[in-house]
Amino acid sequence: MAAMAAEEEQYEAVLCVKPAVHVYRVPPRASNRGYRAAEWQLDQPAWSGRLRVTAKGKVAFIKLEDKNSGELFAQAPVEEFPGIAVEGVTDSSRYFVIRIEDGNGRRAFIGVGFVDRGDAFDFNVALQDHFKWVRQQSELARQAENPEQGPKLDLGFKEGQTIKLNIANMKKKEGAAGNTRPRPSSLGGLSLLPPPPGGKSSVCPSVPAPTQLPGTPITDSLLSWPQPPAAPSAAAPDVWGDFAKAPGSASNQPQTSSGWVQF
Fold first, then answer.
1. What is the spatial distance between Cα 26 and Cα 40, in angstroms, rounded to a whole number?
2. Which of 64, 233, 242, 263 gives 197 a disulfide partner, CB atoms 3.0 to 4.6 angstroms apart?
3. CA count, 13 A, side-chain hemisphere, 75
4. What's the pLDDT tens digit per position in 87-108?
């Protein structure tokens, strides 16, 4: 794992490449005010070439290279941004002052100008994105070392905080569920079939016991109705008996349930 981490540290990623930049000599600042590109003799650049921004680990590198051969002209390591290694000017968004190093401890400040304003914007964003990633990695590493110091989810009630329950809607739903009427049952818990189709006379004629086996449909018109279950024994009462008694008496016949459909 250590070898893999060391290999990743040596990997150099390219963040941004711009083909046309100019380098200018920067006069020393007379005060603490910012740099001004108007003081650089912009019509006489000291060098022209391409700019490449790379990153190795947490450090970014601004490299000024020859357009054709790729030979390195100068390099500016950047360990934080914004910072002293890269600074914008006060009078333009296309010019920056960068601090170059030769690797032997010598440093110098030079001015860099982009021909296109969009290239200057891309250069700035590339550095911002890299150091945003660096801060995120540092935060993740800190949380991994001290997991107890991370933010904790507080689910407790704060002082004066209340919770509201809409009981009226709950009662309304319960009442709606309780209004459902149970299906009427007849003798022995068996459901009665509707009266057979026929005349509209109030006197119900005698109906013989069904010749089909219990649980089978009586007529095609009753196929949509649930059939009575099988009788538990031969001694069970005849569910059609009430229809056979006193055919001339309307008071002895069962009232038609409101849930039945007359055929």
1. 6
2. 263
3. 13
4. 999 999 999 999 999 888 889 9
